[in-house]
User: What shape does this take?
Amino acid sequence: MADMKSQEKTALVIGAGIVGVCTALYLQREGFKVTLIDKDGPGEACSAVNAGGLGGGSCAPFSLPGLWRKVPGMLMNRLHPLSVPPSNFLPATPWFIRFLLAGRQRRVDEITDALLTVVSNIFEAYEPLVSAAGAQDMIQRQGRLFVFTSRQAFENNRYERDLRRSRGVVIEDLDGDQTREVEPKLGPNVVHGAYQRINGHVVNPKRMVQVLAEHLVRSGGTLFREKVKGFETGADGPPKVVTETATHTAGLVVIAAGAWSRALAAQLGTRVPMQAERGYFMMLPNPGLKVPVQWNDKLLAICPMEHGLRVSSGAEFAPVDSPPDYDRALAILRQADGLIPGLEMRELERGMGARPSMPDSMPVIGAAPGHPKVLFAFGHGHIGLTLGAITGKLIGELAAGRPTSIDITPFRPDRF
Ligand SMILES: Cc1cc2nc3c(=O)[nH]c(=O)nc-3n(C[C@H](O)[C@H](O)[C@H](O)COP(=O)(O)OP(=O)(O)OC[C@H]3O[C@@H](n4cnc5c(N)ncnc54)[C@H](O)[C@@H]3O)c2cc1C
Assistant: This one.
């Protein structure tokens, strides 16, 4: 994108989740006058609901070789996080075909290499934003402990660990006692662990988005609570953004509307194969857990936060705005007491969020095809909290007309 003249240095970001807020902040740091628009306000959607993990080594895609053989068994098991409501089975089928094709070895290697370039820069990308907002305490670096209550699950996960290791991610394989040395609250049924010290976590994802958004406004940004309906496109200038109450113009528009981005991109002529992959959390009193844990046998993430212990799971491929299915989700989440003896199952809070998931596990970052003054920043799936700041940084570089510090070719919007 050509460098913009100073009078054009206005930007409008649609979506105040972690990706939109970080993007708005980086654009502001590049000298743009920024307007951020969200239908519900900052951090009210998926970015508030996640497991808090900052995956400094999360470079492995979700589709891996041989996974297709396991899918039918996953769908049959009521306590497995993967679910597809019958009404979404046909609409989601093309996505699943792409997902399984992304699990071929050659593609897995390409995706892993591409994801490594972004995940290995996440803490450096967050640092200036949280420092300026006085929110450094929101990011903790205790690593992430993958735990296994069966030898089988430990072995099944070996391919993925070796994939990350092959890219230089340090993971320590542990026996049960060594795992409990890292996190003493774990029960005696833990037989193996894998400790990835590079990871971090956010102690309150919702508060972090809100604190960053407040800093944006304090620094001169504007925040509107409006729902974007669509665009009015001109010859080759930026489109006007039409909300339910106003029409906005800016020199640059960024679509960072998470799982709702597919519909907005389609209005500009780009079809992206995104599915809403919904996940759930339940907040419990924290018995003193210090290290974020992923229980791989049950696919539960358990994260100590400032307001309790968050247990998260779920990969429900349902339409983005359909009602949550808490019966099923809570049955999955309540299994957490099988890992931490004496865990008090007193539910303090619950929530559901829609991950904006792409079939190749990679985000969409780059100029909208046919609309050089519109940038896409969405599709972060399971690692949007991880990638929020680095995505913002890359969008800032693009908007400023500089070469991006990371090659974003693998994330281009027209790759499908
Ligand atoms: C259970 C669960 C656990 C997770 N755990 C992790 C984890 O440990 N680590 C990690 O990195 N990621 C995790 N994720 C994924 C992560 O939360 C998401 O990838 C990330 O929040 C996506 O951020 P976003 O800003 O793109 O979207 P969102 O946070 O969904 O924000 C999009 C915003 O756009 C707004 N919007 C949408 N449409 C419009 C419109 N038309 N007009 C105006 N505004 C609009 C919405 O109101 C919303 O605020 C998890 C997700 C879930 C569900």
